[in-house]
């Protein structure tokens, strides 16, 4: 086992960009394309671990986050936990910071996949560069001969990263690193709750070891990270719409649906020009229809539906169809909205975006 080189996570990040410029090889540790907390935190901590313990000269280990820098703020639980751990987001490496294709073509790119085991998104074309895998999803049987292939059905990829560090470089587990790993494991396993059916004995063992070393109060950390996951108070309308957004070509129309984590009453307090904000967002993505499916708990779980459609004839047909789909819609009146926008309380709580999208596909397919 090689000895850590005495750097801290903060020092590692502060010197990372300058080190990248002189590297013979960039070994990017990359999470999945969703870039959730587990992917980001696990990639960062594993890259720090490899940088602190690897013997390979000329190789720089880089935690690569495969989303634009501006999208990091949408991962509100990550924003909180990284701040709690003392990590400056400005030091992180995002999609615009590295040209993966140029590195790959120059033979200077290596990859370790974290929180997934098949390259997707920005790394999909670079299969030959994969040198390692750490994942907790179903094993797709790829990369059997890489140096590190750690795929186990645990609750969190962070558990597997923490296990490696505990076994080889436990002195790296200072307060910041431990907070990142532990907060991620607790969120992914719903605070190690067996009833959630996500936690495994290995998650419990690793979390217990991290708790023992850190003195962190488990329930308090989980409650705060869980709260921040749904805390969208700092996000504007554009952020709220793109935080959890999907779009489809349905018939001859382009339709987008955003899942939003607050009520229309709160949203209108934040943005009295909501119709104009919906219009800008729809225009930026060339949408014919934009729907916002709001889901929140205050104090009971509630769903609401917003429909933006500037074409009056299409809007009338769509609203008539939605009234007949079993959503149990009740209009929400808001004086500041224009005719392009309609808001509803949704009585049928069982119809989510996943269930509404096929209904919309059927409607748009029926149009001439």
Give a short synopsis of this structure.
Helices cover 40% and strands 20% of the residues.
Task: Kindly describe this structure.
With 368 residues, the protein is an alpha/beta fold. It folds into 2 domains: 9-228, inorganic pyrophosphatase (n-terminal core); 237-365, DHHA2 domain (Diaminopimelate Epimerase, Chain A, domain 1). The protein is 40% helix and 20% strand. The chain has a 6-stranded parallel β-sheet. Strands 7-8-9-10-12-11 form a 6-stranded mixed β-sheet.
Mean pLDDT: 95
Strand arrangement across the biggest beta sheet? 3-2-1-4-5-6
Structural category is alpha/beta
* Low-pLDDT stretches: 1-5
Total count of helical runs of at least 4 residues: 13
Give structural attributes:
368 residues, alpha/beta, inorganic pyrophosphatase (n-terminal core), Diaminopimelate Epimerase, Chain A, domain 1, six-stranded parallel beta sheet, six-stranded mixed beta sheet, 12 strands
Task: Summarize the helices and strands and which ones pair or pack.
Layout: H1 9-21, E1 25-30, H2 37-53, E2 59-65, H3 76-84, E3 93-94, H4 100-105, E4 109-114, E5 130-135, E6 148-151, H5 157-168, H6 175-188, H7 201-214, H8 218-229, H9 237-243, E7 245-250, E8 253-260, H10 264-270, H11 274-284, E9 289-297, E10 301-308, H12 312-323, E11 329-332, E12 341-346, H13 353-365
Parallel strand pairs: 1-2, 1-4, 2-3, 4-5, 5-6, 8-9
Antiparallel strand pairs: 7-8, 9-10, 10-12, 11-12
